[in-house]
Amino acid sequence: MKFLRIFITGLFISFLGTLPLGTLNIAAMQISISDGIRPAIYFALGALLVEIIYVRISLVAMDWVRRRKKLFRWLEWFTVLIISALAVSSFIAAADPEEKKNVLLSYSFHRFWLGVVLSALNPLQIPFWFGWSTVLLTKKILAPKNSHYNIYILGIGIGTFIGNLIFIFGGQLIVDRLNDNQNIIQYIMGSIFAITALLMLWKMIRKKDAISEMKEEGEASNKL
């Protein structure tokens, strides 16, 4: 019963965490649109492999993660740049009637390895899972045992994969509806990438402002 609770908790958190727009799920959708379902599934599996590795790192190296806030701040900016580049690439493909694929997602190497590379370049998954794992350990839902970690990671993997399937088959639905209008599809995908980048940028600025306000309040209280 304890293992089932850990499994369902990991699956539920991972599934919900996959649903907000991000680099990997939107990339999986676009690969589904341009290349088909099987390459998109390969991509999702490659991204999932790296996520599992990152989860394991977050579990065994919590102290290291806690001390690397500045590093992850820079990685947030790097992620915004990647998403922005994907948006620009989609708009370029939409503007060129002979170009039907996103340039950055149309490399010739296997989609599994493309998923591995893009996921590896998105290590912001580490602080996400670090936060959730800390909460679960604090609430005694998860214990620092390999058996618990393995069940937890299994649930995370299945939850992430199910969440990506929604985007993959959603991409196929878009293709069925707009099959003769590839440029419209690219404009839609470019817009999604652009909106995602702007939302991430807005959240980062808000977070920075909140931290600055807290520092200013602390300095003011010290003066008093």
What does the model show?
The model is unreliable at 209-224 (pLDDT under 50). The protein is globular, with a radius of gyration of 19 Å. It has one domain (2-223). It starts with a helix and ends with a helix. It is built from nine helices and no strands. The chain is mostly helical and 224 residues long. Helix content is 82%, strand content 0%. It has helices at residues 2-18, 23-34, 37-60, 62-66, 69-95, 111-120, 125-138, 146-177, 182-223.
The SS-based structural class is mainly alpha
SSE run:
HHHHHHHHH
Low-confidence blocks of residues: 209-224
Average pLDDT number = 76
> Cα-atom Rg, whole angstroms?
19 Å
Number of helices: 9
Strand content: under 5%
Element layout with pairings:
Layout: H1 2-18, H2 23-34, H3 37-60, H4 62-66, H5 69-95, H6 111-120, H7 125-138, H8 146-177, H9 182-223
Provide a compact summary of the structure.
The chain is mostly helical and 224 residues long.
Q: What would the keywords be for this entry?
A:
mainly alpha, 82% helix, globular, disordered C terminus
